[in-house]
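Notebook entry, structure prediction.
Reason for the run: the old model in the group folder had no record of what sequence produced it. Starting over properly, with the input documented here first.
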Amino acid sequence: MGGSGFVESFTNIIKNLISGGKILKVKNKLLFFLINLLFSLCAFAVGNNEIIIPKGLKPGDTIGLVAPANYKGDNAMYEVEYLRNRGFNVVFGKSFDSKWYGFGGSDELRAKDINDMFANPRINAIFAIRGGYGSIRFIDKLNYDVIRKNPKIISGFSDITTLLLAINEKTGLVTFHGPMADNLKEIPVTTENSFDKAFMSNSSYNLLDFDNSYTIMKNGRGSGRITGGNLSLVVATLGTDHEINTDGKILFLEEVNEDSYRVDRMLQQLRLAGKFKNLKGIIIGDFRNPKKADPTDMSIDEVFYDNFGKLNVPIIKGLKSGHVRPFITIPIGANVKIDTYRREAIIEKNQLNKKIELSFEIFLDSSFFVFNFFNIIVE
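New structure, fully documented this time:
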């Protein structure tokens, strides 16, 4: 039955019930029901398209430092020094100085660090100080309701990919594939310019303006939310409750010290999992120290062309983001519009206004239907 047929049949049923006197005060009850349905439709539609952009930073704000993966390394103080020099207050989570095996404290301690910092209104942002391994051990212990209700910047990369993806997928909060520790030592201009645009500006900007060493692997136009991060960690989400969602999105990937055949295997795993089916674009970040395990193996570029070459989407290759200096921050979950002909990948920061406009449009359209429907059945 088509949509119009269903409405007509449902309308006739209600008319018959009213004319037969079988529903007491049906007009008022039905109106109440339809109004609630209207607001529910608006909330559902907007909620399922929600992008939460955290408030930008300014000097004097407080940044909490945590070690969600491996314990604090020798380079952590470079991050502390840089942030203080920029005028931020710095506070330390318990994981900053903790150690349990190779981790920055127990799984429970590291999860509590993240939960507590999101819940603390005096903390404006959360920065990781090191990657390595360990974030996947506690993402099921995070309080995503608290995170959603207290949106703020959270940043890191490498193993922190797991944390960034989980939070973004579960809450809609934009997270940041951003620099840590020695990335901030004697900070390159490119890294700092990207830091300022990502964390301290409310304006949209071009991701390709910071450095021109990238290449265009395939021309085209596409838009969608950015997702991804470190390739190994992206693949590790498959088959879990935190599996990466690439549908209608722009996929960003980076990696370090992986043989080309291993990169190929991971990309093939993503392909077989259906993660390339409805992509709107690809941004290949830095793949540091790619090697051939055997002379007959594909080179890393051949791996990229073999896996991505037949996809009809724009592809940017070699963006300086990953285990590399300089470092361009990538906002995970933000909307990006790619136009390779214009050398643009515009990060949009005005999704809140778009969400309000969407809600208003849905409200008007639904209102027209609901109240016309009500007028028909109470004639």
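Summary: The first strand starts at residue 62 and ends at 66.
The old model has been moved to the deprecated folder.
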